[in-house]
Write a structure and sequence with these properties.
Layout (H helix, E strand, L loop, with lengths): L1 E13 L12 H12 L6 E5 L14 H8 L2 E2 L19 E4 L4 E10 L5 E9 L6 E7 L4 H16 L5 E7 L13 H4 L21 E5 L5 E6 L3 H6 L5 E11 L2 H7 L2
Parallel strand pairs: 1-2, 7-8
Antiparallel strand pairs: 1-11, 2-4, 3-4, 5-6, 6-7, 8-9, 10-11
Length: 261
């Protein structure tokens, strides 16, 4: 077998439940940022946080068809099994959009412990001509000790699943550029790496709260914090973009001939 590489583009954004710096709830402004700034990145994966209402029944408020049209991505929560409830667009504010070439082979939701209910959307993906990829979209607690418990929960869940490269995407609320105890092998069960770039607050970012992390060195690269006047008005976070390099195995035709296959 001959090892080659494939790449995907990924964007994560906490949209602050549609409330901008001016205190106004304006979902159309979120759609404009996605159409004008995020779509320009041509993402294959878009993970939003705080993208449903905060309280039960966690109803959705975004214009999903407009977002799909602007990005050429598909809303990944088409079944009730991937939503908090029938009125939700995602799970506890986490919403995933995917390029149609990414086939979902397994999907599940993970409840994470804590007084403020948090969760994760876990999707096993099959990129074309590439090794499988596990995508974990999440929004973790503000408290360090609780983040550690939540990451331990995710690590145990992943350990029981089929082995594949794993990507953690979302607002992880960790201000330490090196990642903190919650993201260590001792807690999560595997090493996580990825560039830290300040995304919060949107007006003048100081803290790298939003992260795109992979479990293979060099998996996450080319980080970009998106910025525009509209981004600074629309949310308290800036979007984070990165390029994901995937391993893939392509059959060596000569080797196949030698084995008679």
């Amino acid at each position: 077998m001959q090892s080659k590489l494939a790449s995907l583009r990924c964007v994560s954004w906490n949209i602050h439940r549609g409330v901008g710096r001016d205190g106004r709830f304006d979902p159309d402004r979120i759609t404009r940022v996605i159409a004008e700034d995020i779509a320009a990145e041509a993402p294959d994966i878009l993970v939003l946080q705080e993208a449903d209402e905060d309280h039960r029944p966690h109803s959705g408020f975004l214009d999903l068809p407009a977002i799909e049209l602007a990005t050429d991505l598909a809303h990944a929560h088409g079944t009730e099994a991937l939503k908090w409830g029938p009125d939700s667009h995602g799970f506890l504010g986490v919403i995933v959009f995917l390029h149609p070439r990414l086939t979902i082979t397994r999907r599940r939701l993970v409840d994470l412990p804590g007084h403020c209910h948090r969760g994760a959307v876990v999707l096993d993906l099959s990129p074309p001509e590439a090794a499988p990829l596990r995508l974990v979209g999440t929004h973790l607690s503000l408290a360090q000790w609780l983040r550690a418990v939540q990451m331990r929960t995710l690590g145990q869940h992943i350990r029981r699943a089929p082995e594949m490269e794993t990507l953690i995407v979302g607002d992880v609320n960790e201000w330490r550029p090196w990642g903190g105890f919650a993201f260590s092998r001792k807690v999560f069960g595997r090493d996580l790496t990825g560039p830290a770039r300040a995304t919060f607050p949107a007006t003048r970012p100081l803290l790298p709260l939003d992260r795109i992390l992979g479990d293979r060195p060099g998996m996450v690269g080319a980080p970009r914090v998106l910025d525009s006047p509209l981004i600074r008005e629309a949310s308290d976070h800036r979007p984070l973009a990165a390029t994901i390099t995937l391993s893939r195995e392509v059959a060596d035709a000569a080797a196949l001939r030698l084995t008679g296959s």
